[in-house]
Design brief:
Blueprint (H helix, E strand, L loop, with lengths): L4 H27 L1 E3 L3 H14 L6 E4 L6 E3 L5 E4 H8 L5 H16 L2 H26 L4 H34 L5 H14 L8 H4 L4 H16 L1
Parallel strand pairs: 2-4
Antiparallel strand pairs: 1-2, 3-4
Helix pairs in contact: 1-5, 2-4, 4-6, 4-7, 5-6, 6-9, 7-9
């Protein structure tokens, strides 16, 4: 039992962190978001809703500057104020914004968002457990190795989710009459749009597949559907 105690503590820590993360995420989004009211973007949302055979697709503006879209654990879809600003400035088209919304709808429909929150607790438990074990054999750098390993695992899982959400969005955009073109043109702009002033790529983009690979995957889908 004594030998199992560190593992049980690590798992318990992961579960507590999961609960805290869900609560903090919901609280942050509730306090810093408002429902999207832009008529031109609402029109695209209505097209997506019709394709999904539902009454409406609710999208919210999250009041932060980084360019991003996200799906909350409760299924709500968000685009950041920074992303919406790019649309208003003409750097991103309405159809390209629709492709972001469709992608996030894919994360919800495929269960990625809820699973990621659960995975987060597992990763914390694995990080803590590996850190404890490796530190006994490699003092000083055991924790660093544990962090690196869990980060690699999380990034690989995230990239797989992105490909799946891309494919879902491509099918939805096609059914809605918007097409895959805006999805591909947005990918071509994505790195420039998300580049920080300091020149570093944001962490969330590093966990995504390469832009060229995402476009190639979409083009493979197009060929498959046209065959």
């Amino acid at each position: 039992m004594i030998k199992l105690l560190p593992i049980l503590l690590a798992v318990g820590y992961g579960l507590v962190m999961y609960r805290l993360s869900v609560w903090r995420t919901k609280k942050e989004l509730d306090e810093r978001s408002t429902e999207l009211a832009d008529p031109s973007l609402r029109q695209y949302c209505d097209q997506l809703a019709a394709a999904l055979e539902i009454d409406r697709v609710r999208v919210f503006i999250y009041e932060i500057d980084p360019v991003n879209g996200l799906a909350a654990p409760d299924g709500r879809i968000f685009i950041t104020r920074g992303f919406y600003r790019k649309f208003k400035q003409g750097e991103v088209s309405g159809a390209e914004m629709a492709s972001v919304i469709a992608h996030e709808l894919g994360h919800v429909a495929l269960g990625h968002t809820r699973r990621r929150m659960i995975d987060f607790s597992g990763q914390n438990a694995m990080r803590a457990t590996l850190g404890m074990i490796l530190s006994r054999f490699i003092p000083g750098i055991g924790v660093w190795i544990a962090n690196a390993l869990t980060t690699l695992v999380a990034a690989r899982m995230s990239r797989g989710d992105e490909y799946e959400a891309d494919a879902y969005a491509a099918a939805l955009l096609t059914k809605a009459g918007i097409g895959i073109g805006p999805q591909k043109t947005l990918f071509e702009k994505l790195e420039a749009l998300t580049q920080s002033r300091g020149g570093a790529m944001p962490a969330w983009l590093m966990s995504h597949p390469k832009t060229t690979e995402r476009i190639a995957a979409l083009e493979a889908l197009e060929h498959k559907w046209q065959a």
